[in-house]
Amino acid sequence: MYRYFKLSIVGCLFVVTGCATLEQKRQAIEASLDESERAYLVGKYSTQCKGNSNKTKCAQHFNSISVSFKSTDNDRIWDRLASTQGGFSGNSVYDEVKPELDEKSIYFCRILPEGEYKFYTTSYWNYAGGGSGYSLRKEDYFTVPFSLKAEKITTVDHIKLTTRQGKNLIGLALTLPGQLELKPLSKEELSLAIKKCPVEAHDKPIVQSGLSEKEYSSPFVRSVN
Fold first, then answer.
1. Is 24 left (phi over 0), alpha (psi -120 to 50) or beta?
2. Using CA atoms, how far apart are residues 189 and 179, in angstroms rounded to an integer?
3. Interior CA angle at 190 toward 161 and 34, to 5°?
4. What Rg value do the Cα atoms of the chain yield, rounded?
5. What are phi and psi of 14, to 5 degrees?
6. The dihedral of CA 110, 112, 116, 121: what is its sign?
């Protein structure tokens, strides 16, 4: 289940600073790899949002909604896919905003070393009042495994984090974390994701991970076909 956290101002600044450090870490990993050692991870990351009455805008209920993945071979290699609004480090830039579907999306390409990886946790954070939010307990971490091969593009499909509606202790409506949904990518979506990679990688062989075709035992993950 999810744990609710209330952070101090220091804690909030640590989270924001960590985002900047993560981007620097990505650049360092990329720089450390020769062209022949680079594996490419591509896909589409979406978050659930709430479209306004005339369906021209779509606001997410948390400032930051993210899913994390890491190497199972090297604990120092990890990253996350995030949708951020209202943070000190800037807002996410979306490739698609679809208020009629209550969804906004980012296509991504990550350059990583070859190896075994897994998605394993999600988090939902707000920055107001020093910062607060939800994160999975370690005993509830899930495993969505995938492999990366050097000089190949691996697709992890369409990854979406949802929210759900609940009530607080006095019965007022409250937005809560939902699930990690895995959906197949269309040919057009795959093409848009690959365009996020460096030009020299566009013609690399493509490996389909098939994450959305599998079943998962965790209540926090589901395939949508």
1. alpha
2. 22
3. 100
4. 18
5. -65, -40
6. negative
Please tell me the total number of residues recorded for the chain in this structure. Answer: 225
Q: Where are the beta strands (DSSP E) in 16-152?
A: 38-48, 50-51, 58-59, 64-71, 78-84, 96-98, 103-113, 115-126, 132-136, 144-148
Structure tokens at 13: 């600044």
Question: Who contacts 88 (Cβ-Cβ below 8 Å, separation ≥6)?
Answer: 13, 16, 127
Residue 116 to residue 96: CA distance in whole angstroms:
30
Q: How far is CA 211 from the centre of its chain?
A: 14
Q: State how far the alpha carbon of 65 is from the alpha carbons of 79, 155, 191, 222, in Å.
A: 14, 21, 25, 17
Q: Record the pTM.
A: 0.88
- Return the number of other C-beta atoms located less than 10 Å from residue 129's C-beta: 10
Distance, in Å, from the CA atom of 174 to the CA atom of 193, rounded to the nearest integer, reads: 34
What CA–CA distance (Å, rounded) separates 39 from 153?
Answer: 6
The angle at the Cα of 110, spanning 58 to 82, to the nearest 5 degrees, equals 30
User: Per-residue pLDDT tens for 28-52?
Assistant: 999 999 999 999 999 999 999 988 8
Q: 91-131: per-residue pLDDT in tens?
A: 899 999 999 999 999 999 999 999 999 999 999 998 877 77
Determine the Cα–Cα distance for residues 31 and 38; give it in Å rounded to an integer.
10
